[in-house]
Amino acid sequence: MRKLGACAAVVAASASLLVGVSGVASASAADCAHGANGFVDIPDDLEGTVVANSPGRSLTVEVGIVQGVKRGWARAHGSEAALGPGDSVWMDWSQDGGRTWLQCGPFGTSTYKWSLTSAAKATNPSPNWRFRGGAYFNGVMTLTPWY
């Protein structure tokens, strides 16, 4: 299972960017870790089927079977360089087509690694139930399209 260490600096930096952004609920890793809000913890190296990706650096929304349920999660992964201290990943989850959302994360790393995931959330056939991945790479934010 994912080790959820203290990500205070990453959370504080991300929270400051959320001020004034319409539709975003206050967020922290605690909003979706250890089963909160129906999310489940997954290993950082879990790979699924890619359903959305960002241009440039490798950020994807992936789906797969986790604990017997089809779930989605965000995954940041190094293609040319490893992820390092200060890099983080999160997943936005919406029940109204992306008008408002809960941000699951950010989940950061204090070491160098090739993959970092958010917690996973069950998928739903409703067109209003949407996921979007987000990440900071070297202080630059990137997002996937909504899935």
Written description of the protein model:
This protein is mostly beta strands. The protein has one domain (8-143): Immunoglobulin-like. The protein contains one helix and ten strands; from the N terminus they run H-E-E-E-E-E-E-E-E-E-E. It has one helix at residues 8-18, and strands at 39-40, 49-53, 59-66, 69-77, 88-94, 102-108, 115-117, 120-122, 130-137, 140-143. Strands 1, 2, 3, 4, 7 and 8 form a six-stranded antiparallel beta sheet that branches. Strands 6-5-9-10 form a four-stranded antiparallel beta sheet, covered by helices on one side. Strand 9 (130-137) and strand 10 form a beta hairpin. The radius of gyration is 14 Å and the shape is globular. The two termini are 25 Å apart. Residues 1-27 form the signal peptide. Keywords: Signal. This is Secreted protein.
Highlighted features:
globular, four-stranded antiparallel sheet, signal, Secreted protein, Immunoglobulin-like, disordered N terminus, six-stranded antiparallel sheet, 1 helix, mainly beta
Helical content (DSSP H or I, runs of 4+)? under 10%
Main sheet makeup:
6 strands, antiparallel
Radius of gyration: 14 Å
Would you tell me which CATH topology applies?
Immunoglobulin-like
Task: Give the topology.
Elements: H1 8-18, E1 39-40, E2 49-53, E3 59-66, E4 69-77, E5 88-94, E6 102-108, E7 115-117, E8 120-122, E9 130-137, E10 140-143
Antiparallel strand pairs: 1-8, 2-3, 3-4, 4-7, 4-8, 5-6, 5-9, 9-10
Quick synopsis:
The chain has one helix at 8-18, and strands spanning 39-40, 49-53, 59-66, 69-77, 88-94, 102-108, 115-117, 120-122, 130-137, 140-143. The chain is mainly β and 147 residues long. The chain has a single domain (8-143), classed as Immunoglobulin-like (Sandwich).
